[in-house]
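G., the chain you wanted modeled:
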Amino acid sequence: MFMGSETEELTFVRLRAPNQSQVLNDKEVKSFFPTIMSISSSGIQRSRFAALLASILSILYFLFPLSSVLERADHHTHGPPFHALIRRAPQPSTAKVAVSFGQLFQTNNVHNISTTSLPSLARRNEEDDRLIHNLVCKGDLYIDMITRSPPTKKIWTQQDLDNGWSVEDEDFDPSENILPALRDLDIPHEEQDVRYLEIHQSEQFRGMGNRDYPPTGGGYNNAYIAAGDRSTIIAQNNRSPKHEAEPGQMIPAFYRWSDVVWLAWTQIARERAGQLHYIIQENITTALTRKVMEIISGGAGPDALDLPWPGRLYDLRTKEGKALLATPHGVGVAFMIADHSDVLGGRKYPAVCIFTARNTVPFLQERWNYYMIWELRDATEGEMELDEQRTCRDMA
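Predicted structure as tokens:
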């Protein structure tokens, strides 16, 4: 029997006589197979008739090409000819659309490409969009926290710093990659202008139940510049005790970067603490922060964001700015500002600048160093114009 998905009755099958181009009708079919018809009418058992019919049709298959024996007019179905279904299994199309290699990475051509042939590209775009959307929603919450939340009621003091923390003064040696930023933004960076502190949670501390607990090994290395009117904190190497602690290990209550660094800042800047203008974050290695910077800058691959100084400046009212605010590096800055709004007064940060530079630090595995600069401006200065073409120099 010749059957197909589009064929419900045998009458749809047409037989072609040898050396003839026309399609035979039902009467001609009977004359073409007189042996079959006579056997059928003689009353031989059905099973023998079916076996004989199958044998004859098998012989015909080898005597004549199948394409000349079977004819499925295309207007009868919406699918391929019936013989094409029998001679080979259906194969998925591998040539949906002819596109050049370069076109694969152009956003306006993605919709022309079969998603089955490029699942990773479609999935990556969907995952990136979902990630940015979630971070933008969180960024809105952090903006609300900064602008509306009252300052924290918890006041950390030197006594908390003395509980398991060691503090060492070190010389500040700015990397060549941030020197252009320090110069263009008029940030003092001579040795006499900078205090560089390494604050490590390297000693046992008194914690829950008035018990002593072992150190976590976390620490914060930051430069503090209180001179001039561009007061700045430069975060160079920061590892939270919560991140460094072993699973289940107790951590001190006084552990957040925003709390530890703010306490050090107030001790150095004193009455000028409320004039903090910039927070610079160097050599960012956190995977999530780097990924967000890559996505909002055009979809650069991992460790491939080529955005040299003066980089790009984003207003926090944009989705890019909100997404950056919701990264681990942005959250630390958000808490520092929100928790100490009483000292900072009406100051807030309406912009964040990002840029990259070739890695010059031997012990870092990344090819590119990623940087962020947060600007704190007084509310009376007004909001920045939303302009995607702005660079970090526009903060000066």
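The two ends are 84 Å apart (CA to CA).

Shout if anything looks off.
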